[in-house]
Amino acid sequence: MSADYTVQGSVAVVTLNNPPVNGLGLETRTAAVNAIRQAESDDAVKAIVITGAGKAFSGGADIREFNSPKALTEPTLHSLIRVVENSSKPTVAAIHTVCMGGGLELALGCNYRVAIPAAQIALPEVKLGLLPGAGGTQRLPRVLGLEMALNMVVSGTPVPSEKLAGTALFDEVFPAGTDLLPAAIAFAGKVADMRPLPKVRDRKVDYPNHEAFLQFSRNTVKAMAGPFPAPLECVETVAASVTKPFEEGLKFERERFLHLAQTPESKALRHAFFAERAASKVPDVPSDTPVRNIERAAVIGAGTMGGGIAMNFANAGIPVSILETRQEALDKGLATIRKNYENTVRKGKLTQEKCEQRMSLITGTLAYEDIAQADIVVEAVFEDMGVKEQVFRKLDEVMKPGAILASNTSTLDLDRIASFTRRPQDVIGLHFFSPANVMKLLEIVRGKETGKDVLATALALSKKIRKTGVVSGVCDGFIGNRMLEQYLRQAFFLLEEGALPEQVDAAIEKFGFAMGPFRMSDLAGNDIGWYIRKRRAIESPEIAYSKTADLLCEQGRFGQKTGAGWYDYKAGDRKAYASQMVNDMIEQHSKDIGVERRAIADAEIVERLVYALVNEGAKILQEGIALRASDIDMVYLTGYGFPVHRGGPMFYADTVGLPNVLDTIRKYARGRHGEAWKPAPLLEQRAAEGKGFNG
After folding, report:
1. At a CB cut-off of 8 Å and minimum separation 6, what does 558 contact?
2. Global pTM?
3. DSSP 479
4. Please, which pLDDT band fits residue 179 given cuts at 50, 70 and 90?
5. Which ranges in 156-296 belong to alpha helices (H)?
6. I want to staple 149 with a disulfide (CB 3.0 to 4.6 A). Which of 98, 141, 347, 399 is the partner?
C-alpha cells in the first residue's frame, strides 16, 4: 500500500503499489510525495516517471478510505498533484490498463503523459453521485477540448487510450506490444532538459460560442439526469474551465464536490457501491477458500426461467445442457433462447457471430444420463416440493461426485430439498430473477449443510456470469420474496380500504420504483402469488390476506400472459390499461366485507409499502438470514427495482431516521390489520440506541 522508488540512469521511477488498482490511499500518497522529493534532491536524476504496479496505473481514490479521516489527511490527493505539478524536474505519467478518477487527475498534474493502447481512461465519479474533485473538471477540458471532456465527465464512461491519441492528453501513445516502462524512460530522457516545463493548468480552453454549447448541454443533461444532481453539477464545473481562471475554477470544483458529497443521492450511490463489494464477503468463508471448477453446466427445465439461466452460462462461455421431459417443451425452450439472442442482434448489442457461438454452447436433452458429467446443475422446475423431490432424487442418483446441485426455488425450504439427496453438502440455492438473462440479482441460499467450498464457488460463479450474488439463509421466501410478501399484503389491503391499482402503482413509481406492485404482478404472473397464498392458508392459517387477488385469479386474469390481470392488455402491446371491470370488482369486494372506502393519500401508500419492507427486513437481519443490512439493500436494488437514489429499503430507513419509521409503524399498528405491523425487535432496539441498520 505504498509507492516504490528506483533510479534507472538519470530517470527516477515512482511506481504506485497499492493492489488491486493502486488506489491513492494515504500511505500511497505519502510514499509518492516522498519519492518525488527524493528525486528532486538527487542531482543525478534529470526526470521522473510515475507509473503503476500490476494491472493498473491507478483506479483513483482508495475506496477503503471513503468516509474516513484518512481521505482528508495530508498529503491529500490535491497536495500530491501540487507536488507533482510543481516539480523542478519533468514528470512523465506512464499509463497502462486502468487510469481513472484520481489516477487520471494525477496524470493530468504531470508535465507529460505517455500510454500504451487499450488503457481505460475515465473520470467515473458521477456514478457515485459526485464530480471529479482534484482538478479533473478543470484540467481535462484543457487537453481534450470542452466537448469531449464534458462528455467524459458527465457520463463517467471509460475511453480506450488509443482513441485519445492525437489529443493533448497524451504526448505519445506507443504501438501495441511496446514495453511501457523502458519506452517511458526513454521518452523522459528526451524531455529531461526541455524548459519551460509544460503544465496543463497553463493551457486555455478555446471553444467558440461556448455559451450556446453549455446551455444546450444543461438542457440535455437535465432531461436525462432524473433525480440525480451530479450530472448537472458536472456541466457547471466543466463550464468553469472556460469562464473562470484556473485557480477560481479549482475552488469552484471543490465547493461543488463537497456539496454533492452531502447529498442523499450521492450517499445512496456510495452505499450501493460498497454494499455490492461487501455482499461477496462471508465471515466464515475466507477469500482463499478453494473453489470447484465449473467447466460444464446443466439446467433442468426449458421454460422461461430455465432458458434464461442457460443463457447466463453460455454468455460466460460455459457449455450448458438443458434437460426437459418432452421434446416439444425442449424445442420451444431452445427456440425462445434463439429468439432472445436474435432480438439482441437486431438491437445491435450482439453480433450474429457471437449469437451463433452462444447457441452452439447450448444443447438440449431428454435424458438425465446426458448431464451426469456437468460440474453444476440448476433445477428450474415448477415451484412445488413434490416436483423438486423427484428431480433431486434423480440428480443424486446420476450426477458425478463433486457436482454442485442447485435449486432455483424462490420460497421453498432448501434444507428439505437437500435432504432428498445423500450429499446435502453439495446442495445450494441459486435463485435467479426473471428474466434471468437480464436481471442482475442472484440470491445464493446457504443450507445448513452447504459446504463452504460450494458457497465460495457460487459466489465466484456469480461474478463470472455477471450477477450480484447475495447470500441468504434458509427461510420461506429467503430475503427478497419474504419481504415482498409483506409489501404485497399492504398493497392488497390498500385496495380494500379505498385505493385502486393505478393509484398505488403511480404513487410508488413516483417514489422511484421501476414498477408498481400491480404492474409487477401482472408481469410476473398473478397465479404465482395465488399458489403461494393457497400454501400459506394450509401452513399459516393465522396470517390474514386480502381476498381481492384471489378473486382476480379466479377469473383467470393472471397478467400479461393471459392478456388480462390487474390491468387490461392489448395484443402486441405491453402497456397496462386501467380495467373498469377490475376496479368495479375491488369496490364490490370492499362492500362485501363491510369496509367503507376512503380517500388514501399517496404518502400513506408509499409509507405502507416501503415500511412493510423495512420491518420485515429488520426481522430477517435479526434472524441472521441476511448477513448485513446492506445485503438486503442490494437484493432490492438489483432484483426488485427499488430506486437507486434512495439506496435500498434499509438505507432509506436510516436516512428517514429509525425513530420516525418506528413511530409510523406503530401508527399503522393501531389501524386496520394492525397485526401486520408488529414492530421488529431490532428496529425498536436500533431506534432506542439512536443507530441505523447500516451503521
Report:
1. 525, 526, 527, 565
2. 0.93
3. T
4. very high
5. 180-191, 210-224, 230-243, 246-261, 264-278
6. 141
Q: What is the pLDDT of residues 23-45, one digit of tens each?
A: 999 999 999 999 999 999 999 99
Q: Whole-angstrom Cα distance, residue 564 to residue 204? A: 62
Joined together, the cell numbers standing for residue 594 give 363491510
Euclidean distance between CA atoms 443 and 315, whole angstroms: 19
Q: How far apart are CA 379 and CA 443, in angstroms?
A: 14
Provide the residue count of the chain.
695
pLDDT at 1: 60
Helices (H) and strands (E) in the chain, counts: 27, 19
SS (H, E, C) 622-668: HHCCECCHHHHHHHHHHHCCCCHHHCCHHHHHHHHCHHHHHHHHHHH
Q: What is the dihedral of CA 572, 381, 557, 486, to 10 degrees?
A: -110
Give the residue from 569, 561, 537 showing the smallest Cα distance to 550. 537
Q: b/e map of 207-242 (b: 16 or more CB within 10 Å)?
A: beebeebbeebeeebeeebeebbbbbbbbbbbbbbb
Q: What angle do CA 46, 49, 53 make, to 5 degrees?
A: 150
Quote the CA–CA distance of 692 and 614 in Å, as a whole number: 12
654 φ/ψ sector (left φ>0, alpha ψ -120 to 50, else beta): alpha
Q: Which three cell numbers stand for residue 187?
A: 521518452
Residue matched to cell numbers 460463479: 461
- d(CA 383, CA 417) in angstroms, rounded, equals 12
- Supply 130's cell numbers: 459526485
Residue with cell 432531461: 223
pLDDT digit string, tens, across residues 469-505 = 999 999 999 999 999 999 999 999 999 999 999 999 9
Catalytic annotation, residues: 105, 125
Q: How far apart are CA 331 and CA 426, in angstroms?
A: 30
Pairing relationship of beta strands 441-445 and 427-432 according to DSSP bridges? antiparallel
Q: Measure the CA–CA gap between 412 and 429, rounded to whole angstroms.
A: 10
How high is the pLDDT of residue 206?
A: 87
**Sequence letter at residue 284:** D
- Collect all residues with Cβ–Cβ distance below 8 Å to 397 and sequence separation of at least 6: 368
- List the grid coordinates of 467: 450477477
Residue with cell 459526485: 130
